[in-house]
Amino acid sequence: MFDFLSDYDDPTLLGAFWVTVQLTVLSAVGSLIWGTLLAAMRVSPVPLMRGFGTAYVNVVRNIPLTVIIVFTSLGLANIFGVTMGTEDLKDRAFRLAVLGLVAYTAAFVCEAIRSGINTVPVGQAEAARAIGLSFSQVLRLVVLPQAFRSVIGPLANVLIALTKNTTVAATIGVAEAALLMKEMIENEAQTLLIGAIFALGFVVLTLPTGLFLGWLSKRLAVKR
Amino acid sequence: MKLRKVSAAAATALVLALTATACGGDNGGDSSGSGSDGGKTIKIGIKYDQPGLGLKEPDGSFSGFDVDVATYVAKELGYKPDQIEWVETKSADRENALSRGDVKMIAATYSITDERKQKVDFAGPYLLAHQDLLVKADSDIKEGTDLNGKKLCSVTGSTSAQNVKKEIAPKAQLQELGGYSECIAGLQSGALDAVTTDDAILAGFAAQDQYKGQFKLTGLKLSNENYGIGVKKGDTETLNKINDALEKMVSDGAWEKAVKDNFGPANYKNEPAPKIGQIVQ
Amino acid sequence: MTSVLYDAPGPRAKRRNVLFSVVFFVLVALLLWWVWQTMDEKGQLEWALWKPFTTSEAWTTYLLPGLADTLKAAALSMVIALPLGAILGIARMSDHRWVRIPAGAVVEFFRAIPVLLLMLFANEFYVRSTGIPSDERPLYAVVTGLVLYNASVLAEVVRAGILSLPKGQSEAAMAIGLRKSQTMSGILLPQAVTAMLPAIVSQLVVIVKDTALGGVMIGFTELLNTRSTLAANYANVIPSFIVVAVIFVVLNFILTSFASWLERRLRRSKRSTGAVLGAEKVDDLNAAEVGGTYGTGAGGSI
User: Fold this and answer.
1) Where are the transmembrane segments (chain A) (predicted)?
2) Which of B47, C104, C108, C178 sits between 20 and 30 A of B190, alpha carbons compared?
3) What structural domains and CATH numbers belong to chain B?
C-alpha cells in the first residue's frame, strides 16, 4: 500500500518535509524581526511611520497568502527583476517564498506584539521616561522584553499557522511537502491515502511545537 | 444591572439563534438534495482554463476540442447540447470525480496511463498529443538538450515537469507554477525560456489574441499523450457507447471539423485520428 | 495622539519628526514610482490587459459568481464556527474531566492539520455517508473544513478571554447564587466576547481568505478559482491577481470596520451600565493574554 513512497527520491518524503522545516524556521526568524519593526513603527512618535505601519498591516493581512506568494514570483522576480542574488531558479523560488512568507506573517507578528505592548503596565513606560530614556530606549530596554514574554502564546499560534502556510510555496515551485504531495497525487491516483500521509506529517511537525510553546508561555508569563 | 442582564440574554439568544440557523442551513441543504441523476441531463467533466481544449468563454458558453468531442459523444448517447451540464474537473480530482459519480465522463486532456487505468476506465483515445516546448518566436531552442541551463516552466507536480527533470534535460532549470497562464506570462516577460506540456494545450495558448505571433512550438515529440474519455471503473456500457460514438465521429468527418475549428487558428499540426483502443506508448 | 511610550515632542523633537517624515515619504514615493515605471516598461499597464475589467462579462461570468461563492462559504463558516468555538472553549474549561479532555483533543488535533486536507477529507466523508448532490458538495466540504479549523482556534480565543477575567466576577456570580451555566452565559461569556473582539475579527478575516483553498483541489468555484479561468481567457495574469487582491482587501476592510464599530458600541454600552470593567481595563484586556491568538493567518494551500 505504501510501496509507492520509495519511488520518490528527488526529494524523498523526509527531504520534502525538511524543506518545509527550513522554510518555517527562516520565515519565522525573518517575520519576527520585520514584525517587531512594524510594531515599533505603529507605536512610534513619527506620524507617517505610524500610518505606514497601519496601512501595511491592514493591506497585507487582508490578501490571501497565495496571491502574495504568486506576486513574489510573477511580479517581483519576473517583472521587477528581483533575482534574490541567484540565477538558480530553485534557490530563487525558495528565497522568494521566504520573502513572501515573511511579508505576510510579519503583519500577524506585529499585531501580536502590539497587543503585548498593551499588557505592559503604564507605570513601566512612565518610569522609564522619568529617568530620561528616549523612545527607542523605552521600547528596547523596558517595554519589548516584557511584551515578548506575554505574547509567546499568540506567537506560537502564528508559528503553527506559518508551518502550515509554507505549503503555499508549492504554487511557485518550491520542492516542499505540498509539492511532493501534488506530484504523488498526479501519479498515483490515490488522493486520500496520500492526503492522510501528509496530514500526519503536519501533525507531527506542529503538535509538539504548540505543546512546547504553550508550556513555555506559562513558565515565562509575567506574574502580576 | 437590569440592562446588563438584558444584554447577556441577548448575547445568549444570539448564540442560540446562530446555532439554530447553522443547523437549519444544514438541514435545508440536505432535504433539498435531489439525487445527481435526477432529470435527463448528463454531467461531463472538462477543463475551464485551457484555450483550444476546454475554455469557459466570457459569455458563459464553452469552447474547445474536448468540449466538441464531448458534445458529439453526448449527442450519440442521446443528450442534446442543452442537456449537458459542464463541470470543472481539476487534474487532481479527475479519478475521484468519476468514482464518486459526480460526472458521467471526463474529457479534460486526460492522458491514458497505467496508474489511472487502475482507478478508471478509458474510452478512446480520441487524440494523440505529445509533450512539446513553447518558446519565443525568435528562440534558438530546437532540441530537448538545448534546454540544459535554460529556464523551463511547467505546472506544479505535472507529469511533464517530472518528465523533463528525469529524462529530457536534467540540467534545465525547472520553474513550477500554479497554471499554464502563469508560465506563459513569464515566457512573455522574458523571465523564462520555455514552457512545456502537451502540444495541444500549448497551441491553444499561443493562438490567443494577446500572444499571437509571439511564440512557436518546437515540434519535439518528447512523449506520447493519448487523450481518452474517462468513465467510472466497470461502466462498460457507457464505455462501449462512447467508443462507438468516437468511431462515428471520425468516420463522418466531425472529428476533422472539430480539429480544424479548434486547432486551425493555432496552426497546430495534429496527429491523424487514433484508432479506438490503440494506445501509442 | 499621545502615548505613554514617548514624551510630548518639544521643538527639537518636532523638527526631527518632520525630518523623519520627509525622508520616509521620499523613500516610499521613490519605491512607488519605480513600481509604476517598471510595470509600464514591461507592458503590464497596457490597456488591453485591463480593459476586460471594464466589460460586464468579465464580472458576470467570472468574478461575481466567484465572489458570491466566497461570501457564501465565508458567511456560513462564520455563523457555524463562532458558536461551536464558544462551546468548545467552554467545554475545555469544564470541571468534568470527560468533557475537558475530549474537547482539548479535538481543538489540538484540528489546529494541527492543514485546512485544505480537512476540506479534502470532508468532501470524501460527504460522498460516502450523505446524499448531498455533487454540485453543492464542494460548498459543504469547504465550510466543514473551515469550521473545524476555525472553531478550534476560536475555542482557544474564548478560553483565553474567560481566563483573563478577574476572578471576582465568577466568585460574585456564585455568591449571588447563580448556577455554573448561568455564570458562564450571563456573566463571563458576554464580557469575554467583548474583550476578545479584535482577535475574533482577525480570525474571521482568516476565514474569508481561506475560502480560496476550496478552489485548489475540490473544485469549489470561489474567487481565486474563477480568476484563473478569467486569466486563461484574457491572458492577463498579473492584472487579474491585482484586481482579486483589491477585492479581498476591500471585503476584509468592510468586515474589520464593521467589527470595530461594533466594538466601540459594545464598550460604550458597558460604560453606561456601570460595568465592573472600566474602559481602560478593557483596553488592557484586549492585549495578547486575552487574544490567545491574535489572528493566525492560517491556511496553507495543500
Assistant:
1) 15-41, 62-81, 93-113, 191-216
2) B47
3) 42-128+226-263 (3.40.190.10), 130-217 (3.40.190.10)
Contact C232 B90 (CB under 8 A): no
Question: Which domains are delineated in chain A?
Answer: 3-220 (1.10.3720.10)
**What global pTM score does this model have?**
0.83
Looking at residue C283, its pLDDT comes to 40
B135 or C279: whose pLDDT is higher?
Answer: B135
Could you tell me if A73 and A93 are in contact, meaning their C-beta atoms sit under 8 angstroms apart?
yes
Contact C288 A115 (CB under 8 A): yes
Name the average pLDDT for chain B.
Answer: 81
Whether C15 is covered by a domain: the verdict is no
Nearest residue of chain B to residue C274 (CA atoms): B1
The C-alpha of B274 sits at a distance from chain C's nearest C-alpha, in angstroms, of 28
Contacts (Cβ under 8 Å, ≥6 apart) of C262: C197
Number of residue pairs across A and B with CB atoms under 8 Å?
71
Contact A74 C120 (CB under 8 A): no
Does the pLDDT at position C144 exceed 60? yes
Contacting residues of B for C238, CB less than 8 Å apart: 185
Reported ipTM: 0.84
Summarize pLDDT for B14-72 with one digit per residue, the tens.
Answer: 444 444 444 333 333 333 333 344 458 999 999 998 988 999 988 889 999 999 999 99
Return the percentage of chain C with pLDDT > 70, whole number.
Answer: 87
SS3 string of A98-112? HHHHHHHHHHHHHHH
**pLDDT (tens digit, 9 = 90+) per residue, C167-221?**
888 889 989 999 888 888 888 888 888 878 877 888 888 899 999 888 877 788 8
C233, C240, C266, C268: which to substitute to probe chain B, counting the most B Cβ within 10 Å?
A: C233
Closest residue on chain A to B187 (Cα)? A78
C-alpha cell at A72: 513574489
Closest residue by Cα to residue B270 from B215, B190, B203, B222:
B203
| Cβ contact, residue pair A171, B115, below 8 Å | no
* DSSP designation for B234: T
Ramachandran class of C57: left when φ > 0, alpha when ψ lies in -120 to 50, beta otherwise: alpha
B contact test, residue of C55, C134, C142 with most B CBs within 10 A: C134
Of B9, B50, B93, the CB nearest to C232: B50
Residue C218 domain boundaries: 51-291
Contacts of B232 in chain C (CB under 8 A): none
> Which of A23, A48, A120 has the most C C-beta neighbours within 10 Å, making it the best mutation to test the interface with C?
A48
List of chain C residues whose C-beta atoms are within 8 Å of the C-beta of residue A167: 114, 116, 300-302
Q: β-strand B224-232 against B215-217: which pairing, if any?
A: unpaired
Domain of C239: which CATH number? Answer: 1.10.3720.10
Q: What tens digit of pLDDT does each residue of B88-120 get?
A: 888 878 888 898 888 999 999 999 988 888 889
Selection from B111, B12, B116, B18 nearest residue B66 by Cα:
B111
Give me chain C's average pLDDT, please. 82
B175–A188: do the CB atoms touch at under 8 Å? no
Is C140 in contact with B29 (Cβ distance < 8 A)?
yes
Q: What is the pLDDT of residue A28?
A: 95
Rounded distance between C-alpha atoms, residue B102 and residue B88, angstroms: 11
Q: What is the rounded CA–CA span in Å between residue A14 and residue A16? A: 5
